[in-house]
Amino acid sequence: MAFLQTHEVSMRFGGIDALNGVSISAEPGLVTGLIGPNGAGKTTLFNIITGLQPPTSGQVFLDGRDVTSVSVYRRARLGIGRTFQRLEIFGSLSVRDNIRVTVEVRRRWSRQRIDIKHETDAILARVGLEEFAKVPADTLPTGSARLVELGRALATRPRLLLLDEPGSGLDAAETEAFGLLLADLAQDGLAVLLVEHDMDLVMKACSHLMVLDFGELIASGTPEEIRANQQVQDAYLGAEEPPVGSITEPGLAGAGTLP
Ligand code: ATP
Questions:
Q1: Average of per-residue pLDDT across 160-166
Q2: Nearest-CA neighbor of 46 among 73, 82, 12?
Q3: Atom number in ligand 1 closest to CA 36
Q4: CB–CB of 137/94 below 8 Å?
Q5: Nearest-CA neighbor of 168 among 200, 124, 127, 216?
Q6: Which residues make Cβ contacts (< 8 Å) with residue 222, sequence separation at least 6?
Q7: pLDDT in tens, 96-140
Q8: Domains and CATH numbers, the chain
Q9: How far is it, in rounded angstroms, from Cα 179 to Cα 258?
Q10: Atom nearest to 215 CA in ligand 1
Q11: Ligand 1 pocket check: which of 43, 52, 195, 198 to mutate, most ligand atoms within 8 Å of Cβ?
C-alpha cells in the first residue's frame, strides 16, 4: 500500500457527487499532482484526507493505518500538513512569528526538545524568507505570503504535504523557484501532493499525475502520458460537456490547455 492511499472515497453534497469512488496515492520522495477542471473535487479530496470533512464512504490510509475516523489535529500529528487555496496566515504577525507559533505548538504536542529559534531560522531559510523575517505577513506580495504558509506547514514537520493551488498569484520567476523548492522537499523524503491549475508548474514539478473530472478519477500516469491522454484533453477542453470554468473563466490562464 502507498504511504498515502485513499480507497474508493465518495462524497455526496445533497444531490451532487463531488467524489465518486476515488482511489489515489502519494509516496515519499515524489511530487504527485492532482489536477482537474474547476469543481472536479480536488479540494474536497484534500478536506477528506486532512479530516476536515468525513467522506460519505471510503477510507483514507496513512502509512498503512486507516485514519478515516481520526480527528484533524491527530492527523496533523501523524504527519499530514497542508496549505489552503485561499491564503491562511496570521496577517498581523511577522513572518518569523507565523512560523515560530507553529514550531511552539509542535513542541507542545510532540513533547520533544525542540530549539525553537534554531528550528524557526531553519524553516525561514528553507523557504527563502530570511530577509522578510521581521515584516508583518500581510504586507507581503502574494508569492512571498504563500511561502509563509508553506513554512508554517513545514513547521509541523509533515511527512505528507498537501498544497492547494500554491502557484496562484505567483509570477513566472516565483513559480519557477517554487517548483525547485518542491523538488527539494521531495528529495528530503516528503510525500508532496499538489493541486494546481498552473499546468507549466504541474508538468515540471510532478513525476506522477492523477486527473479528476466531475468527481471521477479519469487518468493517472506520467506528465507525458497525461498530456497525451484524450479523455484528459476532452475534460479540459470540454469536447463533450464543458466543465465549469474550464477555459472561459477569467483568472484561470493555463487551466484550459495542457502544454
Ligand atoms: P476548484 O479547482 O475550483 O478549486 P475543485 O476541484 O477543488 O475545484 P471542489 O471545491 O472539491 O472542486 O468541489 C467539487 C464539487 O463539490 C463542486 O461541484 C462543488 O460545488 C461541490 N461542493 C464542494 N464543497 C461543497 C459543500 N460544502 N457543499 C455543497 N457542495 C460542495
A1: 95
A2: 82
A3: 6
A4: yes
A5: 200
A6: 207, 208, 209
A7: 999 999 999 888 888 888 899 999 999 999 999 999 999 999 999
A8: 1-79+158-259 (3.40.50.300), 89-157 (no CATH)
A9: 17
A10: 14
A11: 43
Residue that has been written with the C-alpha cell 468527481 in this structure:
215
C-alpha 242: how far from chain center: 25
Confidence of residue 239 (pLDDT cuts 50, 70, 90): very low
User: At 62, is the secondary structure helix, strand, or coil?
Assistant: strand
Burial class of residue 42 (count of CB atoms within 10 Å of its CB; 0-12, 13-18, 19+): buried
Pocket of ligand 1 (CB under 6 A): 13, 16, 18, 36, 38-44, 85
- Separation of CA 202 and ligand 1 centre (Å): 21
Q: How far is the CA of 239 from the centre of ligand 1 (A)?
A: 22
Output the CA angle 94-82-251, nearest 5 degrees. 85
Query: Measuring CA to CA, which residue among 173, 171, 193 is closest to residue 182?
Result: 193
Grid coordinates of 11: 462524497
CA distance 9 to 215: 10
Closest CA to 85 of 5, 169, 172, 200: 169
How many residues appear in the chain? Answer: 259
Quote the pTM value.
Answer: 0.88
